[in-house]
Amino acid sequence: MPRWKRDMADAFRRFRVSAKIRESDVVTSFHLAPVDGGPLWQALPGQYLTFRVPTAAGSVLKTYSLSGDVQQDNFHRISVKRECAPTGNDVPDGVGSCWLHDHVTEGSEIDIAPPRGSFVLDQESTRPVLLLAGGIGITPLLAMAKVLARSKRRVWIFHACENGDVQAFDAELRALATASGGRISLHVVHRQPTARDRAERRFDSEGVIDTALLQSHLPLDDYEVYMCGPTAFMAAMYRQLRALGIEKSRIAYEFFGAATSLEHLAEQPATISRAASHAPKAIAALVNLTDPEAWAVPDTTVPMADDIPDRVPKDGDIVVFAKSGVTAAMRSDVRTLLELAEDKGLAPDFSCRSGICNTCRCTLVEGHVSYIEEPLETPADGQVLICCARPEGRVVLDL
Amino acid sequence: MFLRNAWYVAAWSTEITRDLMQIRVLGEKICVFRTAENEVIALEDACPHRKLPLSKGRIKGNTVECGYHGLTFDCAGQCVWAPGGGRIPSAARVRPYPTHEKYGLVWIWMGNAAMADPEEIIDIPNFDSSDWGINSGDAMELQCNYLLMCDNLLDPTHVAWVHESSFAAPATKDTPLRVTKTANGVIVHRWMMDHEPAPFYKKVVEFEGNCDRLQHYEVRYPSHALIRAVFTPAGTGGPDGQLHEKTFVMDSYNFMTPTSETETRYYWFQLRNVRPDDENLSKMMAEDVRHAFEEDRAVLHEVQIGMSNKQSPHIDLGIDAGQLRFRRQLEAMIAEERMIDAKMEA
Known about the structure:
The complex is a heterodimer of chains A (399) and B (346). In chain A, 21% of the residues lie in helices and 28% in strands. Chain A is an alpha/beta fold and 399 residues long. Chain A folds into four domains: 12-116, Elongation Factor Tu (Ef-tu), domain 3 (Beta Barrel), CATH 2.40.30.10; 129-267, Rossmann fold; 275-301, no CATH class; 318-397, Beta-grasp domain (Ubiquitin-like (UB roll)). Residues 1-10, 85-91, 268-279 and 295-307 of chain A have low confidence and may be disordered. Chain B is α+β, with helices and mostly antiparallel strands. Chain B has two domains: 7-119, Rieske [2Fe-2S] iron-sulphur domain (Rieske Iron-sulfur Protein, 3-layer Sandwich); 127-309 and 318-328, Naphthalene 1,2-dioxygenase Alpha Subunit, Chain A, domain 1 (Alpha-Beta Complex), CATH 3.90.380.10. Chain B has helices at 146-152, 159-162, 199-202, 279-308, 321-345; strands at 7-12, 21-25, 28-34, 40-44, 58-60, 63-65, 72-73, 79-81, 99-102, 105-109, 133-142, 178-182, 185-195, 211-220, 224-233, 248-260, 263-272. In chain B, the strands form four sheets. Chain B has a seven-stranded antiparallel beta sheet with strand order 11-17-16-15-14-13-12. Chain B has a four-stranded antiparallel beta sheet with strand order 5-6-7-8, with no helix packed on it. Chain B has a three-stranded antiparallel beta sheet with strand order 1-10-9, with no helix packed on it. The chains are: A alpha/beta (399), B alpha+beta (346). Strand 13 of chain A pairs antiparallel with strand 12 (178-182) of chain B, so a sheet runs across the interface. Chain A: Its EC number is 1.14.12.17. Chain A: GO terms for molecular function: 2 iron, 2 sulfur cluster binding; flavin adenine dinucleotide binding; metal ion binding; nitric oxide dioxygenase NAD(P)H activity. Chain A: InterPro entries: 2Fe-2S_ferredoxin-like_sf (IPR036010), 2Fe-2S_ferredoxin-type (IPR001041), Beta-grasp_dom_sf (IPR012675), FAD-bd_FR_type (IPR017927), FNR_nucleotide-bd (IPR039261), MRET (IPR050415), OxRdtase_FAD/NAD-bd (IPR001433), Riboflavin_synthase-like_b-brl (IPR017938). Chain A: It catalyses: 2 nitric oxide + NADH + 2 O2 = 2 nitrate + NAD(+) + H(+); 2 nitric oxide + NADPH + 2 O2 = 2 nitrate + NADP(+) + H(+). Chain A: This is nitric oxide dioxygenase.
């Protein structure tokens, strides 16, 4: 091996496992101290470390969220759920967690790369915080909670778990809540509590986190939401938060594994084309060849004119073009405010007609609009891109 | 503005030999050569003494000797000899860059070396398949910012005007596009149904008559494109098409390496699912593709000049949606990278 390659490997810093602590039937924490004796890395609450995991076929990189107090601990802590049913084609999901659980012991030395990730707590903000965790998704949120414990912000933590045997960090979270003097509230939800959970009252609610539960515990407020958990959990939470009127921009989330967009997932589960199975060999090697959207893990699909079903406007969907002195009811045969204006003989400026160039931007004097295409940049409050917006009720435009 | 924690193409494998050579990547000058054991080495191309490029010096075994005062560096960039009676100053080293050879290309990692993982190099599933033919790779210098070429490769419409004699057909003018953002890039695609194959493809498809055609234009961060063309007999294509056995597929892989803010080295090759061993076909396709890409080069050079010397604002059209979404996400990734670098340094 050339020397620089050894040096590259060395640049992955070496850490010793100073403690290996069982947190639940399936979750184990690892405390990590740098072998070089130097300072810990600076990390932001919510970030993860990258681990070099040895496998029979060479090493692979796996990431684990920091779960400890990233500002005060004198070690880095990760907490890992043992994934015992590997799936996937190349590197099984469970390869890193099984290695950590089964082979790494106190005293083991492992190679780790510095903290990364943009799913981090906004420490400048003073808004109340909602932390929504599904299962092991609690880890980055626990790091956030520990920092929030030293703030003045109101914090609600909801932790959804299968039962008390697999639930981790109950004691740590309870301690944060107790010490906060009522500023931090913890609510534990067990989907299928065991007899022991019932006997020891180890949960606050049974079932899942639903809109009614959130509504009954949360006063109406301008929350910042951080959530992490299994995909289905996150999609359900995202739907509920949106239904409760929480702005998209106030919802931060992190997937473990392949990233995608919750907005998309919440609306339409991806469909898989099977066309390739009928294809000749050299074509069948391509997965889902004919529909890139099916195999590309769509995140944002920008709708085209043809995709948008006729929308029947409600009675009150009225547009007032104030400067022109024209008032018009929205109709089902025009898609956008721009098309309505043109239909009425007005000639607003436009260029792209698809929400990317901002040429058509104008002042929204009154009312609310919805977007049939997601603008490239969300217009500021009080502004509207008329080329891709429809009225929701009575709208007054400075046109 | 470049994403640094990413693999870029440094050169074709055949371009790097035992001779010292300078390449430029993201505006940095890098000295590349092979060791006696055939490993590719990439070092900052400036002696720390008076900054003479090491590539102007000599290769001595597996070390590089500066052509000015003989400072000698090993493959890790560490100085192993300097004038001064055997004492080597602690700052006498040059930065080494991780490299990896794959698909006949040398890839170079420009960011934090600790994060360099060759597994992250783009996956090309059919590269080694005997069912797929390949036309030999090529490269050219573009006199434009690399993002203008990324724009071009997220733009299925330009073929109607730029590549009239090769890729264009009437349907390429105004068939609507679909834009999909993925975890690692943007795809712009469209199906064009029941029309005569474009001239370049008419020569290679193995069926008669009209076709259904997919244009799949995909660019992955930072600047790697997969342009997939599917031609299938009319009536067998579309998103739910059943892929007739005569379906023709060409996957064009395109890698843009920014050499500076205004220059790009552009690498490519194509894989096809017909007549894999037909060397004449490979040769013809390679020549035609090169000719078409020269057409892009001429346009993009002028666009670079035009966009850098605007006398009036430019406009964006609906067909630019994929490009602008790609640029916006890449900017966000670059900003995140800088934020993290700053935090790590602090």
